Every structure is written in C-alpha cells, then in structure tokens.
Amino acid sequence: MDKFDYIENPHRRYNPLTGEWILVSPHRSKRPWQGQVEKVVEDVRPPHDPNCYLCPRNERVGGENNPDYKDVYSFQNDFSALLQDTPKGKFEDGELFKAESESGVCKVLCFSPDHSLTVPEMEVDNIRKVVDLWCKEYDELGSREDIGYVQIFENKGAIMGCSNPHPHGQIWASALVPLETSKESETQKEYFEQHGRTMLFDYLNSELEKKERILVENNSFVALVPFWAVWPFETMIISKRPVSNLLELTDEEKTDLADIYKKLTIMYDNLFEVSFAYSAGLHQAPTDGEEHPEWHLHMHFYPPLLRSASVKKFMVGYEMLGTPQRDITAEGAALRLRELSKVHYKSKTK
Ligand SMILES: O=C1CCN([C@@H]2O[C@H](COP(=O)(O)O)[C@@H](O)[C@H]2O)C(=O)N1
Ligand SMILES: [Zn+2]
C-alpha cells in the first residue's frame, strides 16, 4: 500500500498502549459551533477559604480536622469508593453473570496549603513536594499485600466534575489491576518480550526524531501529543529513561518531573487563557511484588476543552457506540500548544 496522505483525509490511528483505534476527521475542524457553551467563571480565590475542606485547619465533612500543614498533606478519603475490609469473594451464575469483590484504599492529596493556586502557578520546589508525596504513597500502599495497583491522579476544573478548586489529587489503590492499566500491561509485556526494550522507549525516540508532536522536554522527561490522542489537547509525559515506577527515579529526575508538570500545565492554561481543566494520572507498574521491566513510567492528560475556554468536546454518539473520534489532528494540537508562551498568562499581568 503506497503512503496514505492521512493528514488531510479521514483515517483511523492505532494506539499501541491499549490496542485500540481512534477515528480522525481532519477536514471537519472548520465547522461552526452552535452547541452548548460552558460559562467561563474565572474565580479569584483567597489563599485560605474557611469553607474549604482541603484547606489547613478546616473541618472536613466527616468531622476530621486538617492539620495546619505547610506544604503537602494526604488523608484517607472520607467517602472512599474502595474499602480495605471488603470481604473477598466471587459470584458466577453461568457464563453471563459474574462478579468479584474489589477492595482498596482511597486517599486525597493536598498539593499546597494555598487555596488560590493551581499546579502551573506553583513553584517547582513545591511541585517537587507533590512528587515526593506521590513516591511515599506509592511505596506505602504498593508494599501492602492486599494492594495490586496504585492509581495516582488529579481531576482539575469544575467541568471535570472536580468538586473543589483547592490544588489536590487523589489515589485509588486497589487489590486488582484496573481495566486501562491491565490493557497497557498486556501490550507493554508483549512488546518488551519481542524487542527487549520498552514500547515507550522506542516510541519516544521515534517521536523525538519526528518532532511534530513534541511539546517540551527537559533532561529526564518529554511532554508530547501522542500520535493516537483522542481528546483534542490530550498529552503525555514520558520518562526518557525506562523506569517502571516513581521509586526508580533519581533525585534529579523527580525534580524534572515536577518541572515538566509545571511547563505542560502552563501551556494548557495559556491556550485559552483560562485555568485549563483535565483529568491526569500516572501509569506505573502493578505493585504485585514482581519486577516489571516492561513497564515504562508515563502520565496521561485528558482535557475536555475543544476550541475555546467554554467549548468542550463531547465523547458521545458515535464515540460511545463506535470509535472515539477527533477533528483537529494530534499534529495540529501540538502546533497550537508549542507556539504558546512559556510564561503563565496570569504572571504576565502581575
Ligand atoms: O470532607 C471531605 C469532602 C470531600 N472528600 C473527598 O474529596 C475528593 C475530591 O474529589 P475531586 O478530586 O473529584 O474534587 C472526593 O473524592 C471526596 O470524596 C473528602 O474526603 N472529605
Ligand atoms: Zn482550599
């Protein structure tokens, strides 16, 4: 088959991490928008909000009080979706009705005592303290016999259903490996057995040669728009050195992770000059006590905004019933993001 000019024509792209395909319609990105417009509420927040359950010294809904923490703080979710003492068990009624117990620990991570901040507005040294908290939690939870996977993530922005603007993240640590990471475990294991290198090591080196989807890099990490991105401005952070989890990172690499997390989220905020919503999370090796040389540490960013501070993409209709679909190409999104100032739009006005 000769070289297909996929950039101008409708085409599918393969995601080697999940083994799935996505539909791309480059010709459509010019169509007018008459749909729903999200109202852009740029709230000016105080450094301390007496009603915020994440702020230092405040009482949480469950009656617990937060300490007067000075940098990061984590606590067990008062409304955990997973419980540690869930009785183990399986249910099967023929081959069509199956259920099994799931247990685990959910935690809330406060990134800063300052209610008014978001990650792009935090100092790298303070984001590094978030990285150190991630490492501590991954180590403690992951070393438990009853925890098989530790999912560290951040929901940011009200349109992502985030209930509180205070800079924070979450951890859901479960006995079983969740769906998305079990897909990525399979594909990375297969690739590693075939090539003797991690999939993302080869992928990243190809992307660094092609350049067109690279956003920003430092000594240890690269931020890019993956070839197979689904959400309009979906991105990934990938470690240059193939490490399987946060604990294998050197001191310098941990600071570089904080640095690239800030650099990428500044780009995001500068895109529409609004605090940019996303769900983001780290993907690391399962914590089953085995070595996982096939796993390559990376972070996914899934932002909903499509073409302005108030127009978001809906993953509905054909995307739910058929295949996820996008108009603007991954290359187009990367070009838009790469051109943006590296200085946060709010600090320019200070
Ligand atoms: O007092 C509280 C309120 C909210 N929470 C928890 O904070 C979490 C914040 O979630 P978001 O990241 O989606 O905003 C949410 O999972 C909620 O259960 C507490 O643990 N204690
Ligand atoms: Zn707060």
UniProtKB/TrEMBL annotation:
<keyword id="KW-0862">Zinc</keyword>
<keyword id="KW-0119">Carbohydrate metabolism</keyword>
<feature type="binding site">
    <location>
        <begin position="313"/>
        <end position="314"/>
    </location>
    <ligand>
        <name>UDP-alpha-D-glucose</name>
    </ligand>
</feature>
<dbReference type="InterPro" id="IPR001937">
    <property type="entry name" value="GalP_UDPtransf1"/>
</dbReference>
<keyword id="KW-0808">Transferase</keyword>
<feature type="binding site" description="in other chain">
    <location>
        <position position="170"/>
    </location>
    <ligand>
        <name>UDP-alpha-D-glucose</name>
    </ligand>
</feature>
<feature type="active site" description="Tele-UMP-histidine intermediate">
    <location>
        <position position="168"/>
    </location>
</feature>
<feature type="binding site">
    <location>
        <position position="52"/>
    </location>
    <ligand>
        <name>Zn(2+)</name>
    </ligand>
</feature>
<dbReference type="InterPro" id="IPR005849">
    <property type="entry name" value="GalP_Utransf_N"/>
</dbReference>
<comment type="similarity">
    <text>Belongs to the galactose-1-phosphate uridylyltransferase type 1 family.</text>
</comment>
<feature type="domain" description="Galactose-1-phosphate uridyl transferase C-terminal">
    <location>
        <begin position="185"/>
        <end position="348"/>
    </location>
</feature>
<keyword id="KW-0548">Nucleotidyltransferase</keyword>
<feature type="binding site">
    <location>
        <begin position="28"/>
        <end position="31"/>
    </location>
    <ligand>
        <name>UDP-alpha-D-glucose</name>
    </ligand>
</feature>
<feature type="binding site" description="in other chain">
    <location>
        <position position="325"/>
    </location>
    <ligand>
        <name>UDP-alpha-D-glucose</name>
    </ligand>
</feature>
<dbReference type="GO" id="GO:0033499">
    <property type="term" value="P:galactose catabolic process via UDP-galactose, Leloir pathway"/>
</dbReference>
<feature type="binding site">
    <location>
        <position position="184"/>
    </location>
    <ligand>
        <name>Fe cation</name>
    </ligand>
</feature>
<protein>
    <recommendedName>
        <fullName>Galactose-1-phosphate uridylyltransferase</fullName>
        <ecNumber>2.7.7.12</ecNumber>
    </recommendedName>
</protein>
<feature type="binding site" description="in other chain">
    <location>
        <position position="155"/>
    </location>
    <ligand>
        <name>UDP-alpha-D-glucose</name>
    </ligand>
</feature>
<dbReference type="GO" id="GO:0008270">
    <property type="term" value="F:zinc ion binding"/>
</dbReference>
<dbReference type="GO" id="GO:0008108">
    <property type="term" value="F:UDP-glucose:hexose-1-phosphate uridylyltransferase activity"/>
</dbReference>
<dbReference type="InterPro" id="IPR019779">
    <property type="entry name" value="GalP_UDPtransf1_His-AS"/>
</dbReference>
<keyword id="KW-0408">Iron</keyword>
<keyword id="KW-0299">Galactose metabolism</keyword>
<dbReference type="Pfam" id="PF01087">
    <property type="entry name" value="GalP_UDP_transf"/>
</dbReference>
<feature type="binding site">
    <location>
        <position position="300"/>
    </location>
    <ligand>
        <name>Fe cation</name>
    </ligand>
</feature>
<comment type="pathway">
    <text>Carbohydrate metabolism; galactose metabolism.</text>
</comment>
<feature type="binding site">
    <location>
        <position position="298"/>
    </location>
    <ligand>
        <name>Fe cation</name>
    </ligand>
</feature>
<feature type="binding site" description="in other chain">
    <location>
        <begin position="161"/>
        <end position="163"/>
    </location>
    <ligand>
        <name>UDP-alpha-D-glucose</name>
    </ligand>
</feature>
<feature type="binding site">
    <location>
        <position position="283"/>
    </location>
    <ligand>
        <name>Fe cation</name>
    </ligand>
</feature>
<dbReference type="InterPro" id="IPR036265">
    <property type="entry name" value="HIT-like_sf"/>
</dbReference>
<dbReference type="GO" id="GO:0005737">
    <property type="term" value="C:cytoplasm"/>
</dbReference>
<feature type="binding site">
    <location>
        <position position="55"/>
    </location>
    <ligand>
        <name>Zn(2+)</name>
    </ligand>
</feature>
<dbReference type="InterPro" id="IPR005850">
    <property type="entry name" value="GalP_Utransf_C"/>
</dbReference>
<feature type="binding site">
    <location>
        <position position="115"/>
    </location>
    <ligand>
        <name>Zn(2+)</name>
    </ligand>
</feature>
<feature type="binding site" description="in other chain">
    <location>
        <position position="61"/>
    </location>
    <ligand>
        <name>UDP-alpha-D-glucose</name>
    </ligand>
</feature>
<feature type="binding site" description="in other chain">
    <location>
        <begin position="77"/>
        <end position="78"/>
    </location>
    <ligand>
        <name>UDP-alpha-D-glucose</name>
    </ligand>
</feature>
<keyword id="KW-0479">Metal-binding</keyword>
<feature type="binding site">
    <location>
        <begin position="318"/>
        <end position="319"/>
    </location>
    <ligand>
        <name>UDP-alpha-D-glucose</name>
    </ligand>
</feature>
<feature type="domain" description="Galactose-1-phosphate uridyl transferase N-terminal">
    <location>
        <begin position="5"/>
        <end position="178"/>
    </location>
</feature>
<feature type="binding site">
    <location>
        <position position="166"/>
    </location>
    <ligand>
        <name>Zn(2+)</name>
    </ligand>
</feature>
<dbReference type="Pfam" id="PF02744">
    <property type="entry name" value="GalP_UDP_tr_C"/>
</dbReference>
